[in-house]
Write a structure and sequence with these properties.
single chain; 218 residues; alpha+beta; four-stranded mixed beta sheet; 9 helices; 6 strands
């Protein structure tokens, strides 16, 4: 019986649908339980690679980037808040929240993969940004968050003060772009199947069970 699920989760830390999608995916995997052997890897995608260290006010950023009005942005934000709540994730964003550059966060996530705590750090980063409103471009903040995920704070600080993992992040971003990933979240299963968007648990569960069933017949 082939019950392996190799899952590549391509996402950004400041992407609300990525937070929703990861929560939905994790719930689906809990429901599937021991029926699957899961190998989950999180890969970098930068929605706003050119943002300065200070970031940008959320409402200003959204209206400029997507060409929508402030009222439309607020309606979208409330819809996202409700979708997040439905999967147990708290969004505390408002007009004055800020959007930040995530390159350093992705460097730490690459390091965390080596330490086998990548999933833990990803959840810590998402909560820090969306729920607690922390500046995840601030290196002191990132060190504390790394420690919260079980990583060594001194080594985290050394990594952030250097260019370690910078080329790894850029290479991964280029690889997934070459594979056609242009929006996130993107969930690639067993190198063959793509599940796009912040899907609810039911959709992930149905798709993953279907992949498992197909694998059994191959």
């Amino acid at each position: 019986m082939n019950n392996a699920l190799k899952i590549d989760f391509i996402s950004d830390v400041v992407c609300p649908w990525c937070a929703i999608g990861l929560a939905g995916l994790n719930t689906a995997l809990e429901r599937i339980g021991p029926a699957a052997r899961v190998d989950l890897t999180i890969h970098p995608f930068e929605l706003n690679p050119n943002l300065p260290a200070a970031g940008q006010v959320h409402l200003e950023h959204i209206t400029e980037k997507y060409g929508i009005t402030a009222d439309q942005a607020r309606v979208n934000r409330e819809q996202i808040r409700a979708r997040a709540a439905a999967v147990g994730f708290t969004m505390n964003r408002d007009d004055d929240s800020r959007v930040y550059n995530t390159f350093d966060a992705h460097r730490l996530l690459t390091w965390a993969k080596e330490k086998n705590v990548q999933a833990e750090l990803k959840l810590v980063l998402l909560k820090a940004y969306f729920t607690d409103g922390k500046n995840i471009a601030d290196r002191d903040v990132l060190v504390q968050l790394a420690k919260g995920a079980g990583l060594d704070g001194i080594e985290a600080g050394e990594i952030l003060a250097s260019d370690r993992f910078a080329q790894d992040v850029k290479a991964e971003e280029a690889l997934w772009a070459q594979r056609g990933i242009s929006s996130v979240p993107a969930v690639v299963v067993n190198d063959r199947y793509l599940i796009s968007g912040g899907q609810p648990p039911e959709v992930f569960e149905e798709q993953l069970r279907g992949i498992l069933a197909g694998a059994d017949t191959e």
